[in-house]
């Protein structure tokens, strides 16, 4: 494992995109920053620009409107990077599947532009912050194999 | 000094300041976390961040002008290294660098801000251009009171524009800050330092949740790491400048001299962090009002007091 990969695991910067979520998942993402969970302990911080990010945290169903924009944001991230699909909606469009305004699910949307993208699924509606931390740890484990 | 000595000082001071700055960045993040009742990152976190960014790719926006975009952070980092060398050298040996090094340092410390503007404008992003225009206004606001405040110290030390001269003069008459004009000037310099470091309440140029890191929005990978290192070195260098100009520098003849220098230095850094944590962000127009109509008149009053004190021989004025 190269030094930079080790450092990448120790310092994952997160950029959060709401791709048509009901806002409940977003509240849980913000809970990660609070004193109770404090993901800065693991070196993770929320950043304001996709160009600074290593993790793309996507919440929501990925509607037709956001689809090209989500792809664009993914392309703007410097590689290597990880996608975190948070919530039942982002995993498989949840109860909104086959609704008229759906694009493709988040993983299909991302894989359309980068077939080798690393995607981590966090099930739940909304997932608990603990589940998101567990997912981030899984991501770190996976990055070891790069 | 012979050339090889200069090279050794440059490399030593540059790398040392970089490591010190990254450590101070951790102090910043840790104290912030404690203020917010969090645990905060481990001590090596800022260094890990830099190493990580070195391994990522550098993306070039289609709208960017490559040369200016990538050259700006490198020049900024280099100027910080030069400024750090001059400051540490004059701290260690007050009789060295050269006449007028204070002016050179003030100019060098303005270059990172200029480079930020250049890099941000070259990136062609609207967020970055808003940030660049704010950075320019910020520079115009704080430079004048900062220079006036330093002029107070210069006037009190018998008009020497040499950093070492300031330190030696203070060794004879006592630190500048222990007088009315000196204390006012130091206060102004601390607020200007906050603006120069781009920290809350004066972080309009990169306002994270408003214009998405503003000036740095398009930077990624090693180029971003360059900017972070520049900012870290700035955090290490600015308190050093203040200690040297206003607070007596380093007394090298006894062990407690080093201890008291360390105490003053850390005190200034923690002050910066606490100001950052207890204040909301000011809008750019409020910032300019604070500096032009609030601090500049106070700085002029301090300068007049210092001149009167010098002319009449009143030490405490
Ligand atoms: S997964 Fe549930 S909580 Fe999250 S956005 Fe979808 S509906 Fe809302």
UniProtKB/TrEMBL annotation, chain A:
Coiled coil: none annotated. Its cofactor is [4Fe-4S] cluster. One of its GO terms (molecular function) is 4 iron, 4 sulfur cluster binding. Residues 22-136 form the NADH:ubiquinone oxidoreductase-like 20kDa subunit domain. SUPFAM superfamilies: HydA/Nqo6-like. Transmembrane segments: none annotated. Keywords: 4Fe-4S, Iron, Iron-sulfur, Metal-binding. Pfam families: Oxidored_q6 (PF01058). InterPro entries: Complex_I_20kDa-like, NADH_UbQ_OxRdtase-like_20kDa. Belongs to the complex I 20 kDa subunit family. NCBIfam families: PRK06411.1 (NF005012). This is NADH:ubiquinone oxidoreductase-like 20kDa subunit domain-containing protein. It comes from marine sediment metagenome. The lineage of its organism: unclassified sequences, metagenomes, ecological metagenomes.
From TrEMBL, chain B:
PANTHER family: FORMATE HYDROGENLYASE SUBUNIT 4 (PTHR43359), FORMATE HYDROGENLYASE SUBUNIT 4-RELATED (PTHR43359:SF1). GO terms for cellular component: plasma membrane. This is NADH-quinone oxidoreductase subunit H. It is found in: Membrane. Keywords: Membrane, Transmembrane, Transmembrane helix. It is a multi-pass membrane protein. It holds the Pfam family NADHdh. The chain crosses the membrane at residues 6-24, 69-92, 98-118, 139-159, 171-192, 232-250, 256-278, 290-311. PROSITE patterns: COMPLEX1_ND1_2.
